[in-house]
């Protein structure tokens, strides 16, 4: 009789444990999304003096972990032209913590901070490589449905390049000289500052 009662309790507990596990899984939300918009050198910086703005785009993956934060992984692509034949391809990738401000409005505000690396390719010299990246972001989005989110993104990228050696011939620089052999290489960026502003759409899985 005692074993029979124990069996009844175990069977009764199975639905509760299944519901608990299902609720735990339901709390974890995965979101993937895309954005497209303007990719710009930061105004007032050396980068802005060299490169022009262009259209860029990217994607992201976000999960509500850890604690009150979300973890976001993203990547982007932009091709910046200049006033000459030079162009720079920048493909930043980042990992960031995102925090949604606890407002009771339908419009949600997200703050993001993280880091990663950026792939740079300078043409026509075909110089390329990975550089450290600092990432900060701001997002305004509205849940259009249970699975769809639309909004605006503002991402800031700082590409750290001060650790690099100066390009060949930099020591031959003479201020005021009009001889191109004695002028600084204008396309060797020193800490590139970029920001992206675009429309985004996200899908909750």
Describe the SSE topology:
Layout lengths: L1 H26 L2 E12 L4 H5 L3 E10 L6 E12 L5 E14 L7 E16 L3 E17 L4 E12 L32 E13 L1
Antiparallel strand pairs: 1-2, 1-8, 2-3, 3-4, 4-5, 5-6, 6-7, 7-8
Can you tell me about this structure?
The chain is α+β, with helices and mostly antiparallel strands. It is built from two helices and eight strands; from the N terminus they run H-E-H-E-E-E-E-E-E-E. It has helices at residues 2-27, 46-50, and strands at residues 30-41, 54-63, 70-81, 87-100, 108-123, 127-143, 148-159, 192-204. It has an eight-stranded antiparallel beta barrel with strand order 1-2-3-4-5-6-7-8. The longest helix has 26 residues, at 2-27. It is elongated. It starts with a helix and ends with a strand.
Keywords:
elongated, alpha+beta, disordered N terminus, eight-stranded antiparallel beta barrel, 205 residues, 2 helices
Biggest sheet overview: 8 strands, antiparallel, barrel
Return the string of H and E elements.
HEHEEEEEEE
What is the average of the pLDDT values? 82
Shape: elongated
Low-confidence stretches: 1-25, 169-174, 180-184
CA radius of gyration is 25 Å
Q: Please tally the β strands and state the result.
A: 8
Q: What spatial order of strands do you see in the largest sheet? A: 1-2-3-4-5-6-7-8
Q: Strand pairing plus helix content: what structural class?
A: alpha+beta
Q: Helical content, roughly?
A: 10-25%
Strand fraction: over 45%
The end-to-end distance, rounded to whole angstroms, is: 47 Å
Per DSSP, the total helix count is 2
